Amino acid sequence: MPFDHSNKALLRVDNLRIEIPGRRGTLVAVDDVSFHIGEGEVLGVVGESGAGKSLTGAAVIGLLEPPCRIAGGQIVFDGRRIDNLPYEKLRRIRGRHIGMVFQDPLTSLNPLYTVGRQLTETILTHTDMSEKGARKRAIELLQEVGIPAAERRVDQYPHEFSGGMRQRVVIALALCANPRLIIADEPTTALDVSIQAQIITLLKRLCREHGAAVMLVTHDMGVIAETADRVAVMYAGRIVEVGPVADVVLRARHPYTVGLMGSIPLVGHDVERLTQIDGAMPRLDAIPTGCAFNPRCPQAFARCRRERPELEPVGASEAACWLHGGAAERSGTDG
Amino acid sequence: MAEAATASQDDLLVEVEDLSKLFDVSSPLLNRLLQGERRLLLTAVDQVSFRIPRGKTFSLVGESGCGKSTVARLVVGLHRPSGGRIVFEGVDMASLRTRAETGPLRKRLQMIFQDPYASLNPRWRVASIVAEPIRAHKLLSGRREIAARVGELLEQVGLSPADGEKFPHEFSGGQRQRISIARALASNPEFLVCDEPTSALDVSVQAQILNLMKGLQRELGLTYLFISHDLAVVYHIADYVGVMYLGRLVEWGEAKALFHQPQHPYTRMLLDAIPDLEMTGRARTPVAGEVPSPIAPPAGCHFHPRCPFAQERCRREAPKALAMAAGEVSCHAVEEGRLPPRGVAS
Q1: Is residue B208 pLDDT above 60, yes or no?
Q2: Do B204 and A250 touch (CB under 8 A)?
């Protein structure tokens, strides 16, 4: 069912284009990106810095920072277009139906308010609970995300929590109104490995219990492999490959994904040299014509430099690569 | 415990013995007097001992705050040890006092830092940055010779000599880290201390830098002290691995042995926490708790509050280092043989 772009999808992003206007012309940071997330599904979005994955996440919740702007496409949440809603209406949807977890827990918590006040405020804004009920719910949420002595800690300030505990509070905050979709932007990047494992387990459990779908934006393939149902791989503002997690991780189709997977060192794998993708991702003002990956691709041929490939089905996934798409016209390669 | 430790006893480049570092984290004197507070000392590094054979890579791993970076800074001399010795080729570094004495040793030992954005002076051209150690140690004189050497160094790390004319901001993170490496190599060092050199980089760039560092090691016979929190990176690059927890070295040994047969419960826990990229469906042992504050570490074995095998003795008494097949481990449970065996890591 990976290509089910039906209306059943909880979130559908069609041909999203994000531009950054500047003095020297307009840069296209996200170019013609389409994907969907089903009810209760975890979609991983991976890519290296500058690939446009965080911008895509920010666009979905309407938190693009100017001068970035949505220049094309549409975002449909639960059958309703949300990218063109006025601020107040959008504000009510995010928070109530879409929760957010950011990378740095310190910047998403207000240092001047107790954790409990931030939680109850969010609960009161989005539900019609009484003040007392909201506090009770806040304590329950803290317990649910695994904070010991929640009754006591609810009255503490963010600085009194450790990094891992703060991230748990942020997750509790995202869950306040029982959202149906959570956008998690690098939720474990700032944490130590052992804490990272705890947070991943927690996110997975909560999504299962609450039936919430997750858009998990990260650069860490390990986190994706552990958590996601499907993965979208981004490169230079476009999705180059998308498919079920096992297919993308174990049977990558796009040469970029293949290179990315090979460059990750693994415990238990003895290799003298890691696979290396030479060069670096192009800057936004110098994206090559044709396939953006062609200058670094070991299998590039004439067509790759000329024409831009679109996502096409390959096995269980989709890849935007001339090696796989349009096989009839393929020439000058050993495939 | 010395004999069992390493095979290449004969050719040790660096020996660290009972190295300790305490930081004074007390409030200012006046506050202490007014509020009757005591002085507060933080033991960042607590009697750490290890040895690095020439031409090998010794890696220190651990979570943030375990003291691994402090060890790196002590070894290069950016901090003065509170106790213990650092011996470089048989010479105790603390015995060298004057600049004339430390100079020849300093140039054989260089450091690469984590953040390639913060460790390069943004107002200097790359050529001046790379040439600085050459000038500081007066290795070459004459502008043309220095320029030629800088060009050679830049080529060695995969950049072009023409890049010397540019400023650091014109480079990406990976290229900046290459510049840091070129600068470190400028004084022809034998020993490089690398503090998380790839953790600020994307994976594909990390692969480039790790490949470069391995290549340089083979070519130039370099010895590395490699600090990292990423066990997969360590598995790839290290010959020996030391695991630190709250300032103490809880286990060290030959890398493959340590990964395949970890002894200390903390090492096992760290290995279990590595995400399963091969999708084997391996069940993960849930890891409990967090690292306690290093200001007031738990008594006895620092790990006991999180250790599933902790007993009365662990809460009371700090374990001593115990010689293993190829390394040492500090754990009462291992000593008493009450630790269940564990299979091969992932």
Answers
A1: yes
A2: no
